[in-house]
Amino acid sequence: MHTADVRTEERYRLNPAVRLVPPGSFHNPRWLAVDLVTKRHLAVGRHAAALCVVAAGPTSRAAAVDAVAAYADARKADLATAFDTLLGKDILVAAVTSDRTRWVEQLLSQWRAYGWSEAADHHLMTFDYPFYDYSVDGWTQDRAIMRAYRAAEFDGQRYKTCADVPHPAGDGQPGAGGGIPAPRVTDVLPTLTARFEEVTGAPRRVGALDADVLLRLMSSVFGVLESRGGGPGTAPFIRRTSPSGGARHPSEGYACVFDVPGLAEGWYHYRCGDEALHRVADLDAERTRRALFGALRAPFTARAVLVMTSVFGRNMYRYREPRTFRTLFMDVGHLLTTTEVVAQAMGVAAFGQHGIDDACVSDVLRLAPEEEAPVLSVALGDGYGARATGAQDGTTAAQGGVTAAEDGAAAAQGGPTAAQDEATVAHDGATAAQDGPSSASPPAPPSPYPSSASPERR
Questions:
Q1: CA angle 402, 430, 234 (to 5 degrees)
Q2: What is each CA distance from 329 to 155, 273, 357, 376, in whole angstroms?
């Protein structure tokens, strides 16, 4: 809007796509007015920020100037000039809904109804990211940029190694380097012979969570099925029982052990490279229970809590774009489902929860927050109450049906497989719907594009 078009009697408001960022949030010395749609930001003074706050509800130019002048040591003429500047930069807009703002308001309204305010803002920032067009020459451009990445930095992050995860000296655990050997995932899968309906419906088998079961479960979820590929500038890619976009596998698995027969209490890390559970921290039971408050709401006694973290650099090496962040949660979501299916096949209980004190868990595990962070916790305990007919007292129940080894623990092998090599690109638009809850999904949000715009491709 041109300032020459401003009318004193008209009403204006803060652009629904604009967010105010206070000084210091991102080392910014002044207030910032950030437009999520245009990706532009404007540094503003405190008086201009106050005008934006007043304009959160529709107001006239004169009323906004008077309101700020009443509480600030500023001349009305200067405030009027600042108001006009905000209008000229589209930080403030006419109060009447326009085609330009209608789709933003509809999207925000629907997403916020389910508590997805931050997700809505992230979507507005990234909806028009210029992806490659793989129906034209996207693969050629993709391979060229990956060669450039490898020339600048070796692509070797597949899983954490002994050097990456410190563990208490003299922890007394068996195995090399303090590790407790775990079975190979390829040896565990054939033993998961519960019928399909047993691992997808109400609990039917009852088992106890001991060291052997925990090790088998960790191997099933985080173990390496095979490694393949690699070459100049890149390490071989791995496959797990759950898929991962571009075979990046950014998730790591830790177990907080409270009371697991055969295993000393403490924090452990499942290390893919040597297929072992390594003790990495002592257990402060009271502090840990506060840090894992979500998982401890489980309807059973938690003998251990599995904590999944995301190592940001693995995905960001390949996908250097804003939407990469959401793929971390998709990765953990796959692993959660695999954990639940495998646990039920083994006859033990699992309860997934996002309630984690991130800072506390990161401190205990000595994680660098800019490199790795906790995302999800899963309480594990003894199996409880069969509520339907079928396999009794924890028997194998191998009669007919699809086995968990074929369908459940292999999780999404029926979909895009984890064997996709590094050239595979996760098509974000097609997969984003996997982020939301399977029940109580919101109505389909409005088109992410303004009626006059269409997505660009790079």
A1: 85
A2: 22, 23, 17, 9
The predicted pLDDT at position 8 comes to 53
Give the helix/strand (H/E) hosting 226.
strand 226-228
Q: CA nearest 260: which of 274, 277, 241, 275?
A: 277
Low-confidence ranges of the chain (pLDDT < 70): 1-9, 162-178, 201-205, 385-458
3-state per-residue secondary structure call for 117-148: HHHHHHHHHHCCCCECCCCCCHHHHHHHHHHH
Contact (CB, 8 A) for 110 and 124: no
Of the candidates 118, 167, 364, 390, which has an alpha carbon nearest to the alpha carbon of residue 270? 167
Provide the token pair at 412. 């999404």
Is the C-alpha dihedral spanning 396, 401, 407, 408 positive or negative?
negative
Helices 324-346 and 211-222 sit at what angle, rounded to 10 degrees? 140
The one-letter amino acid at 199: V
State the CB neighbour count (10 A cutoff) for residue 197.
Answer: 14
Compute how many other C-beta atoms are within 10 angstroms of the C-beta atom of residue 169.
Answer: 6
Q: What is the pLDDT of residue 419?
A: 35
pTM of the model as a whole: 0.68
Tell me which amino acid residue 67 is: A
The structure tokens listed for 217 are 């479960």
The residue behind tokens 């303090």 is 178
C-alpha separations of 420 from 238, 239, 242, 247 in Å:
9, 9, 12, 6
Residue-wise pLDDT for 327-365, tens only, equals 999 999 999 999 999 999 999 999 999 999 999 999 999
Whole-number Cα distances in Å, 191 to 184, 217, 393, 397: 12, 11, 17, 11
- Of 110, 125, 106, which is closest to residue 441 (Cα–Cα)? 110
pLDDT digits (tens, 9 = 90+) for 71-84: 988 999 999 999 99
Structure tokens at 134: 């793989």
> Which stretch of DSSP H or E encloses residue 112?
helix 99-112
CA nearest neighbour of 333 among 456, 200, 432: 432
Which residues does residue 40 pair with via DSSP β-bridges, in sequence order? Answer: 35
